[in-house]
């Protein structure tokens, strides 16, 4: 009889880890879902500084132009002739989004203007140039 009481006491003293595991899985799902919405152009550019910069809301389409005048969208390099089609596709997914061009200090103005023109030809007139705050 005493042995039965001792086994019952040991069973009652064990900690149930199920609620803790439930919380960990819920947090994991939360971080996975929120991490999907981070948009990146695919490369890091050295942006020019501006004293009149303002934050832009509803940024949907990021286009980066690096120092070698290569154009990057959605973490892949694209040709200047394909910029319009890519912007049209991304703008169709989120019509309220804007286009932000991240141009390197060393990039040519001709390439940046070609990207802005392609965005306007695609029907997006909310085009901004990304800068660092002075």
Task: Walk me through what this model shows.
This protein is an alpha/beta fold. The chain has two domains: about 1-35; about 50-134, Nucleotidyltransferase, domain 5 (2-Layer Sandwich). It has helices spanning about 1-15, 20-35, 85-95, 110-120; strands spanning about 50, 60-65, 70-75, 75-80, 100-105, 125-130, 130-134. The protein is elongated, with a radius of gyration of 26 Å. It starts with a helix and ends with a strand.
Please name the defining characteristics of this protein:
40% helix; 2 domains; transport; 4 helices; cell membrane; elongated; five-stranded mixed β-sheet; Biopolymer transporter ExbD; Nucleotidyltransferase, domain 5; 134 residues
CATH class of the largest domain: Alpha Beta
What is the CATH-assigned architecture of the largest domain? 2-Layer Sandwich
The order of strands across the largest sheet is 4-3-2-5-6
Structural class: alpha/beta
